[in-house]
Design a protein that fits this description.
Keywords: Amino-acid biosynthesis, NAD, Oxidoreductase. Belongs to the D-isomer specific 2-hydroxyacid dehydrogenase family. It comes from Mycolicibacterium parafortuitum. It is a single chain. The protein folds into 2 domains: about 150 residues, Rossmann fold; about 180 residues, 3-Layer(aba) Sandwich (Rossmann fold). About 35% of the residues lie in helices and about 15% in strands. It contains 14 helices and 14 strands. The chain has a 7-stranded parallel β-sheet with strand order 8-7-6-9-10-11-12, sandwiched between helices.
């Protein structure tokens, strides 16, 4: 890119420092967005940014008016040089895809690298709830064991698993559950029957999935299609012995409806890694139920996943600024306009592929 402007990438933080180490070896200017600094400081950095590694919703929740640093219409309208925005993980609800597409901005996520961590967490929820591990732990520590039969759990063997969203996480979870001989039902409008058969699962409607499943696992992204997907009707249709587990995003389910279902005995329990408000308030009633196991959006946070995501993040930005198509582009329809803007701002026209090893474009 000799003679071309140096690409400027603004980031709030990396999941692992290795991302910065990788990018420092590239011809990319790295600028950190300090959420504790003044708004003027933040906007001064973003107005000149060509790329933005978007802050997470949990991070911006730490400060008042923090959501202005999410990639919504207001931010997009103030950042004329912005070419691409990326989310830290598979979820991209911190980005308004439509607003970015209208502005000619490429939107990317980092699906894949953290799938193992989240799928293992989801399986852990299943085992914990079925075997009443946390319930037994609480009873033991509280000195109130009583009759051990009251802590009797169930097994995964031969049960029915319902997976909502057969992406990288859902697909890996299905593989993990194979040794338990579970029947696996999947609700995913973007998966066809041949793919389902190849993965050893059965495509069903959401209504059938909630009615038949012993464990309902939600692993889909938060979009306009999935927001509010689980409400009173879905919880009411579940078996009283069934468990609801989500590692997706809080707004995919109705928290008030879930609370009522748990208190009323409509379902047996829940494993929750996500909430409407994150971190959830201590007085959130879901956290005070014995049949709920909860974690603070940590399903994807492992040493291995953090590093893998960081490396994938850095490599995707390398591809972007080398003039290639991002490997995890979420709005491919933006490509023609994006290429024109990229050429105007950085002096070269992107191509479909880039050979990063040799530092050249492949036409």
């Amino acid at each position: 890119m000799t003679g071309s402007p140096r690409p400027r990438l603004v980031y709030e933080r990396w999941t692992d420092p290795v991302a910065g180490e990788v990018l420092e070896r590239s011809d990319v200017e790295l600028v950190r967005l300090d959420l504790e600094a003044s708004d003027d400081d933040g906007w001064a950095k973003l107005r000149t940014a060509h790329g933005y590694q978007v802050a997470t919703r949990t991070d911006v929740a730490r400060r008042r008016d923090g959501e202005q640093w999410l990639a919504g219409p207001a931010l997009v309208s103030r950042c004329d040089n912005l070419l691409a925005v990326c989310s830290a993980g598979a979820g991209y609800d911190v980005i308004d895809v439509e607003a970015c597409t209208r502005a000619g901005i490429a939107v990317c996520n980092n699906s894949g690298p953290g799938a193992e961590a989240v799928a293992e967490h989801a399986l852990g929820f299943m085992l914990d709830l079925a075997k009443k591990i946390t319930v037994a732990d609480r009873a033991l520590r509280g000195g109130d064991i009583g009759d051990r039969l009251a802590l009797r759990g169930t097994q995964l063997l031969g049960k029915t698993l319902g997976v909502v969203g057969l992406g990288a996480i859902g697909g890996r979870l299905v593989e993990m559950c194979a040794p338990f001989g579970m029947e696996v039902l999947v609700f995913d409008p973007y998966v066809d029957d041949s793919t389902a058969r190849r993965r050893g699962v059965v495509r069903v409607t959401l209504d059938e999935l909630v009615e038949r499943s012993d464990f309902v696992q939600v692993t889909c992204p938060l979009t306009s299609e999935t927001k509010g997907l689980f409400g009173r009707a879905q919880f009411a249709a579940m078996k009283p012995s069934a468990y609801f587990i989500t590692t997706a995003r809080g707004p995919v389910h109705d928290e008030a409806a879930l609370l009522d279902a748990l208190v009323g005995g409509d379902i047996a329990g829940a494993g929750l890694d996500v909430f409407h408000e994150e971190p959830p308030r201590h007085d959130n009633p879901l956290l005070h139920l014995d049949n709920v196991v909860a974690t603070p959006h940590t399903a994807g946070i492992t040493v291995e996943a953090a590093r893998d995501i960081a490396v994938a993040t850095a490599q995707q930005w390398q591809t972007i600024f080398a003039g290639g198509m991002p490997p995890r582009l979420l709005n491919p329809e933006v490509w023609p306009r994006y290429c024109e803007r990229f050429s105007d701002l950085l002096g070269m026209r992107p191509t479909a592929r880039v050979d990063l090893e040799n530092g050249s474009t492949v036409r």
